[in-house]
Amino acid sequence: MSRRAIKAINWSALAERVPETERAAFVAFKAKSDEHLRRMSANPETVPKLDWAYYQKNIPLAGLVDKFQKEYESLKVPYPPDNYTSEVDALEKRVMAELEKFAQESNERIAKSTKEVERIKKMLPFSEMTMEDFRDLYPHIAINPDKPTVWPHTPDVQPENEKGRPSVH
């Protein structure tokens, strides 16, 4: 493991995203992480080299130092495999694609809404509009004098739409 991985954490950016209710847990987590970093930094990056010649001169048992040296140098401690970086990278790519799609759809909605706002701004204000102007702009909701309706002027309460009742024309 490299020591650079722990230094890549942007704590201030994380702190901005932590809600107030979770602030104490975040501070405790950061303290644990800082303590781990201090303990890691106290140790050298690589194991110090042993002075095997010193031990051979000072230990009288024949072959013991050679045996220890052979075993020590053949010892390989396997580093745990990294099973999660590829999953996190794949998740990041998937999320970034979703965010890109969302941004594109949002920009399309913004453009559509902007066009609608511009269209509404160019319209004649309702306060200056005549009934004929309203009928020309909104024929689907304007009152048609050739086909009168009854109050509340919605299609579901009109006589021709009620079952079993004759039309009033």
From TrEMBL:
UniProtKB keywords: CF(0), Coiled coil, Hydrogen ion transport, Ion transport, Membrane, Mitochondrion, Mitochondrion inner membrane, Transport
One BP annotation, GO: proton motive force-driven ATP synthesis
Gene3D superfamilies: 6.10.280.70
Region (Disordered): 145-169
UniProt subcellular location: Mitochondrion inner membrane
Pfam families hit by this protein: Mt_ATP-synt_D
Task performed by this protein: Mitochondrial membrane ATP synthase (F(1)F(0) ATP synthase or Complex V) produces ATP from ADP in the presence of a proton gradient across the membrane which is generated by electron transport complexes of the respiratory chain. F-type ATPases consist of two structural domains, F(1) - containing the extramembraneous catalytic core, and F(0) - containing the membrane proton channel, linked together by a central stalk and a peripheral stalk. During catalysis, ATP synthesis in the catalytic domain of F(1) is coupled via a rotary mechanism of the central stalk subunits to proton translocation.
Mitochondrion is among the record's keywords: yes
UniProt biased composition (Basic and acidic residues): 160-169
Family in the record: Belongs to the ATPase d subunit family.
Cellular component GO terms held in the UniProt record: mitochondrial inner membrane; proton-transporting ATP synthase complex
Protein name: ATP synthase subunit d, mitochondrial
Coiled-coil boundaries: 88-123
GO terms, molecular function: proton transmembrane transporter activity
